[in-house]
TrEMBL record:
Source species taxonomy: Bacteria, Bacillati, Actinomycetota, Actinomycetes, Propionibacteriales
Domain of life: Bacteria
Protein name: Adenosine deaminase
Binding site for Zn(2+): 41, 43, 226, 318
Keywords attached to this entry: Hydrolase, Metal-binding, Nucleotide metabolism, Zinc
Described function: Catalyzes the hydrolytic deamination of adenosine and 2-deoxyadenosine.
Cofactor binding note: Binds 1 zinc ion per subunit.
Pfam families: A_deaminase (PF00962)
């Protein structure tokens, strides 16, 4: 999707059944799988293989709702598909429970990288909350080290086809954000790219963690904030204007500050205009947003309007296990819903790479040497 003509006063495009690439060929799911992809918003404890959950649970004696991997996978998807963010978050009780020792964390991290590489992801930032993995006696530092060991093993097995970095998350309803922020800074040259806060937004504004964000800014460190998913514009406003977030985790509710008039013309409020003008990245997760009730369906997801209006939109998975999704699944769903072609998919991917918490020269190298050539090859095939 290129050029300024699509920024006019027309309403969002209607969904289409069969998306086509620029020369008229139908874009298949396999085509999307072969495309290079960049993932900025994916939770480590939300992407386990069902078989791994079952095996690790048996080792530690944790009771699961099902022990057969296929049945367990269905349970996670059904339990998460409730329309409630609070209920959605409850599914993590089982995955977090089996990630309480070094070998388990390293295994989950390694398998995460392997799965992403097999899905065509070339760069990923994977987030998790170290404070949730200390029940087995590990220190926060040992938790990060175990995850890093797993990531490095996965990257080595992938033969250089993927780069993965950690994002350390603090839970917004707890009081350890400064501790986790300091941990992120201590590890930033050893595999940690930045910091995040997550958890239920209502009643837990990001400003409660202002000291951590001010510390990160003084340390010239990067951070993203879950905002505008289940809560509205105040959460986004605080994340940006009070806390100084580099990116917005989800940010779906920014559409509450955008008016689409009956004649199809579009009017941006002050906050929406600021987010677009400042190119603040939106880490959008369509499948997850539908599950948690932040959007009615993929076809009605605000990503269509926000893409047309040229916000800095990125496409992400959030929780691959709970949503039964992948980057291929997310992007192909958008292809089918909005008729996007290779130009659009490349635009999403470059948006994400530009927004990554990676040094500029490394971002540029991935764009010029991996992403653009990858899409060029798809267009020729």
């Amino acid at each position: 999707m290129s050029g300024s003509s699509r920024l006019g006063c027309r309403a969002p495009r209607e969904p289409t059944r069969r998306a086509r690439c620029e020369d008229g060929r139908v874009i298949t799911r396999d085509d999307v799988r072969r495309a290079p992809k960049v993932l900025l918003h994916d939770h480590l404890d939300g992407g386990l293989r069902p078989a791994t959950v079952a095996e690790l649970a048996a080792e530690v004696g944790h009771e699961l709702p099902a022990t057969d991997p296929e049945e367990l996978g269905r349970w996670f998807a059904e339990a998460a598909d409730s329309g409630s963010l609070v209920r959605y978050l409850e599914t993590f009780d089982h995955t977090v429970a089996v990630m309480q020792n070094g070998p388990a964390l390293a295994r989950v991290a390694r398998e995460c990288v392997e799965d992403l590489a097999a899905d065509g992801v070339v760069y990923a930032e994977i987030r998790y909350a170290p404070e949730q993995h200390v029940e087995g006696g590990m220190t926060l530092d040992e938790v990060v080290a175990a995850v890093q060991d797993g990531f490095e093993a996965g990257m080595a097995a992938a033969g250089g086809r993927i780069v993965v970095r950690q994002l350390l998350t603090a839970m917004r309803h707890q009081a350890r954000s400064m501790e986790i922020a300091e941990l992120a800074v201590a590890w930033r040259d050893r595999g940690v790219a930045g910091f995040d806060i997550a958890g239920a937004e209502a009643g837990h504004p990001p400003t409660r963690h202002l000291d951590a964000f001010e510390y990160l800014q003084r340390e010239n460190s990067h951070f993203t904030i879950h905002a505008g998913e289940a809560f509205g514009l105040p959460s986004i406003w605080q994340a940006i204007q009070w806390c100084g977030a580099d990116r917005l985790g989800h940010g779906v509710r920014i559409v509450d500050d955008i008016t689409v008039h009956d004649d199809g013309s579009v009017e941006l409020g002050r906050l929406a205009a600021y987010v677009r003008d400042q190119r603040i990245p939106l880490e959008m997760c369509p499948a997850s947003n539908v599950q948690t009730g932040a959007a009615e369906s993929v076809a009605e997801h605000p990503i269509g309007l926000l893409t047309r209006l040229r916000f800095r939109v990125t496409v992400n998975t959030d929780n691959r296990l709970m949503s039964g999704t992948s980057m291929t699944g997310e992007m192909h769903a958008l292809v089918e819903a909005f008729g996007y072609g290779y130009d659009d998919l490349q635009w999403f991917t470059i948006n994400a790479m530009k927004s990554a918490f990676l040094p500029f020269d490394e971002r540029l190298a991935l764009i010029d040497e991996v992403i653009k050539p990858g899409y060029a090859a798809l267009r020729r095939s």
